[in-house]
């Protein structure tokens, strides 16, 4: 039981450390693409280990295993990449400097943020003409 | 022992939230502020989980799940608005 408590305490501390590091990276790093890096680690490692700690606690110490933590973990792990990708897309569209340094995609269609996809090219007018 | 770990974790999350608030107030771009809000929601979820462990109750997990959902929808709606000028087309 003591070993379980030590493991749970360590997992809580690891989670708090990663949450702190994620926010420190957000406050300290110089531009948005690098700032994006920190909070995604906080989501996966920080919240992940905290939820494992809580799951172990209610399973081993209290004796009633609960499934809620797994739901939160699943939801966060599914949504964190989507959020990061949306913010990066909006940044590429927003920042003109960023567009010039983007590498070529190597395909007839350009970057998804700036050009319409191949299938949409015939059905939907390009973004530049629909903007006004 | 778990209580002491919870106190330390709460303090660490408080400092992390202050750093996030600094970026929210300072952030040069609107996207920095969106990212800061998203991180603030993540910090809040961590805090709720720690408080649930501290008070020995499973009551708070629904709150954490709700926070996760609302945070995700908020971030995606704000980014969608910046990308397309509209939230729902």
UniProtKB/TrEMBL annotation, chain A:
Signal sequence annotation: none
NCBIfam families, per database record: CPA3_mnhG_phaG, PRK12674.1-5
PANTHER family: ANTIPORTER SUBUNIT MNHG2-RELATED
Keyword Transcription regulation: no
Alphabetized InterPro entries for the sequence: PhaG_MnhG_YufB
Keyword DNA damage appears in the UniProt entry: no
Region (Disordered): 113-132
Transmembrane regions listed in the UniProt entry: 6-30, 42-60, 72-92
UniProt entry keywords in alphabetical sequence: Membrane, Transmembrane, Transmembrane helix
Name of the protein: Na+/H+ antiporter subunit G
TrEMBL record, chain B:
Main location: membrane
TM region(s), chain numbering: 6-22, 34-55, 61-83
Its membrane topology: Multi-pass membrane protein
Keywords for the protein's UniProt record, in alphabetical order: Antiport, Cell membrane, Ion transport, Membrane, Transmembrane, Transmembrane helix, Transport
Record has Magnesium as a keyword: no
Family: Belongs to the CPA3 antiporters (TC 2.A.63) subunit F family.
Name assigned to this protein: K+/H+ antiporter subunit F
Native organism: Microvirga splendida
Lineage, broadest ranks: Bacteria, Pseudomonadati, Pseudomonadota, Alphaproteobacteria, Hyphomicrobiales
